[in-house]
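Supplementary material to the annual report.
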Amino acid sequence: MARKTSDTRRWGFTILAWGVAFLIFFPILWTILTSFKSEADAIASPPKFLFFDWTTQNYAEVQSRSPYFRHFMNSVIISVGSTLLGLLIAIPAAWSMAFQPAKRTKDLLMWMLSTKMMPAAGVLIPMYLLFRGWGLLDTRAGITVVLMLINLPIITWMLYTYFREIPSEILEAARMDGASLRNEILHVLTPMAVPGIASTLLLNVILAWNEAFWTLNLTTSKAAPLTTFIASYSSPEGLFYAKLSAASTMAIAPILILGWFSQKQLVRGLTFGAVK
Amino acid sequence: MGSITLQQVRKTFGEVEVIPGVDLEISDGEFVVFVGPSGCGKSTLLRLIAGLEDVTSGRIVIDGQDVTQAAPAKRKLAMVFQSYALYPHMSVRKNIAFPLKMAGMAADEQERRVQHAAGILNLTDYLDRRPGQLSGGQRQRVAIGRAIVREPSAFLFDEPLSNLDAALRVNMRVEISELHKKLATTMIYVTHDQVEAMTMADKIVVLRAGRVEQVGSPLELYRQPANRFVAGFIGSPNMNFIEGEAAAAMGAHAIGVRPEHFTMSTTGGQFAGTVGVAEHLGSDTFLHIELDGGTPIVARAAGEFPVDHGDRIWLTPQDGRVYRFDQQGLAL
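Predicted assembly:
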């Protein structure tokens, strides 16, 4: 009897889990399905789920109307660039906070994180004016720096927590062995923190890839990433649901695939065998 | 060369004074053991010598050179850590070669030295493994290998054996002692285990609360402890202390007798008591005795001594083996 109830419970939870997963995934699925419909089918009521005239015309039209590849390259450059730039600053910062903490290190960390709680719209006007003044509007360099700055607190926090798990004795051993600070970070700390740095890198690429507020406000065409590309299809006039969906699918596909392939590599021991 | 001199070395962490001011002279080639209960500042003292902590005041001189402000690597010392502190992402070969690489040594010379060290430490077959694939004892040998290749003027060991099991600890103890004989390099060794201190040291430095209580050879400390703390810390089992009338009769606040310095009898003697627990090891017999005044005593008899729980027993300290201490605990 007991066995039977636990089986029922397990089935119940399994179905529930699948249900929740489906709910979360449904908007993406719907977007992908819509991208293969004609504009008429896309707004049909009641909605057509699977039985409609499948077409790839939207993709062709989106390709011909706007340069997908340029936006894609912009997204890659901006998200990877801002993440690498952020790591360059955050690794030494996290090192000093993890291994040479001062009295106010904890406060500093909290303060850094608190900047993420501020609504971005609050600084939009000054940022816009600064960008205009410096001639950075619609430049890849400008938007890369902005995305780096807004993600820097998260990068630093993540690295800080990873670094904290590395025993400081190993770094002291490196110091005794004659490693300069540069060599200590380059040859000992960074290789040991590779899994942590990799997951930080991935998460921040995704965050930067999906970032829509600053990219929409500070870029228009030359430096515009895929977010701006999608937004250009949400026009108040005319019905472009299918084309919008095709654009969205093309925008999220690369990051979805990247996430799918890298999830396994991210789960790995950090300091295997270093300290008993 | 590897003589080390500490002059009034002081260390405070914020308000807390950990080392109130230590003077110490270590000559070239000596095996010195810092011993004391946990929290006595022995590891801090070692880290000050290594340069991993900055001294608050005082001077550290190595081979006649003031290194008080010098970076750890500039002091020509090598350190072996309690947790081994190996680089987990490098092979054993790379771990051992790391200090040489940092010194910018040519690759073939690096390899020659690594092979030499691996030969001494029986690690030749493991050079391509990662630390994670080694046993605790092997890891410790890699850590020692990494120290040897630099040919330092002195080795610093920070409780290197405390992560090993008891049997391995005895083996490694002998290995480190042999290594010292072979290399004849100064070694400073920190431990809380007085057996390690007694068996390995040329010179023991007993520390308590950051203060040097006594410095001397193992047998000097055993025979002439400067105070009650050293007397109680050195020797196993610990020295017995008897206060009250018996001590007053000898003109002292307390007298101390080591467990092995009692003559025991079941018929009569100086102190009468009752056996609590009797531990018969064959080679020795340890008796936990409560004297009639209530003072607990541990006594050791060589070989077998047939008494059991509840038996009456009389103890007489051997001639010249009674230590006398004043009110402050200083030896009289």
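Chain A has two domains: 2-59, 68-266.
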